[in-house]
């Protein structure tokens, strides 16, 4: 079970401090939300922030691309120091090609589906990815409420993994707090992204410990 704090809710004027803080508190990945103002109605950061963060942490950088036609930028993010690059099924006409590009760049690849997208839409690429991300909110913003209908997709992905011997991790992102993390863990999730729950607190590492307790109990 892994916890991936999302820096979307960190203090952008103190990113180094906020990344080092959660690393010391037992985070497993640093989740980096990249938004382009087109695929989603918000703009965040680009490869230059990933390269600035690379030397400040030993943790894998889990880069969630919410951008149209990610094939235009995956190589830039790989060069910047991303360890895992995750692309939306809905963002490209060439999902297989972009996943191959990520692999060829020497980086782990992930595919992500929005709440309205079924698992069947990514069936053909499940054997080639290292991670499948199930959005449990509509992408674009932190602090939204968890959408319970997404749990069935986590169960489906968990069953498909077991039946076919696939190797992907199942990550969940959006509205993760101890209660929803427990439901996702029961459904088969392994990686838990949490932004506002961790960073909108006086004690981010206390919040990480509470999620850890919920998913490991
Ligand atoms: O990808 C996204 C939002 O699009 C996330 O990674 C958010 O950062 C999650 O925020 P919380 O729901 O945990 O506040
Ligand atoms: Fe994300």
Automatic annotation (TrEMBL):
SUPFAM superfamilies: Ribulose-phoshate binding barrel. Keywords: Carbohydrate metabolism, Cobalt, Isomerase, Manganese, Metal-binding, Zinc. One of its GO terms (molecular function) is D-ribulose-phosphate 3-epimerase activity. InterPro entries: Aldolase_TIM, Ribul_P_3_epim, Ribul_P_3_epim-like, RibuloseP-bd_barrel. The keyword Manganese applies. PROSITE patterns: RIBUL_P_3_EPIMER_1, RIBUL_P_3_EPIMER_2. A divalent metal cation binds at residues 31, 33, 64, 173. Substrate binds at residues 6, 64, 140-143, 173-175, 195-196. GO terms for biological process: pentose catabolic process; pentose-phosphate shunt. It holds the Pfam family Ribul_P_3_epim. It catalyses: D-ribulose 5-phosphate = D-xylulose 5-phosphate. GO terms for cellular component: cytoplasm. The active site is at residues 33, 173. It is an enzyme of class 5 (isomerase). Its EC number is 5.1.3.1. Pathway: Carbohydrate degradation. Binds 1 divalent metal cation per subunit. Gene3D superfamilies: Aldolase class I. Its cofactor is a divalent metal cation; Co(2+); Fe(2+); Mn(2+). Catalyzes the reversible epimerization of D-ribulose 5-phosphate to D-xylulose 5-phosphate. Belongs to the ribulose-phosphate 3-epimerase family. This is Ribulose-phosphate 3-epimerase. It comes from Vagococcus coleopterorum. The lineage of its organism: Bacteria, Bacillati, Bacillota, Bacilli, Lactobacillales. The gene is rpe.
């Amino acid at each position: 079970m892994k916890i991936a704090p999302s820096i979307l809710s960190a203090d952008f004027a103190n990113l180094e401090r906020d990344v080092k803080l959660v690393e010391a508190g037992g985070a497993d990945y640093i989740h980096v939300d990249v938004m382009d103002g087109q695929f989603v109605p918000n703009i965040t950061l680009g490869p230059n922030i990933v390269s600035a963060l690379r030397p400040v942490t030993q943790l894998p950088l889990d880069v969630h691309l919410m951008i149209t036609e990610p094939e235009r930028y995956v190589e830039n993010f790989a060069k910047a120091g991303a360890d895992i690059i995750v692309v939306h099924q809905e963002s490209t006409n060439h999902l297989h090609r972009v996943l191959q590009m990520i692999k060829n760049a020497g980086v782990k690849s992930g595919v992500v589906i929005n709440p309205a997208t079924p698992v069947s839409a990514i069936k053909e690429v499940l054997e080639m990815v290292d991670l499948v991300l199930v959005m449990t909110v509509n992408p674009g913003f932190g602090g939204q409420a968890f959408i319970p209908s997404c749990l069935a997709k986590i169960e489906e992905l968990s069953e498909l993994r077991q039946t076919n011997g696939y190797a992907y991790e199942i990550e969940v992102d959006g509205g993760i707090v101890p209660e929803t993390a427990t439901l996702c863990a029961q459904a088969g999730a392994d990686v838990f992204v949490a932004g506002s729950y961790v960073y909108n607190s006086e004690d981010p590492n206390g919040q990480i410990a509470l999620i850890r307790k919920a998913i490991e109990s």
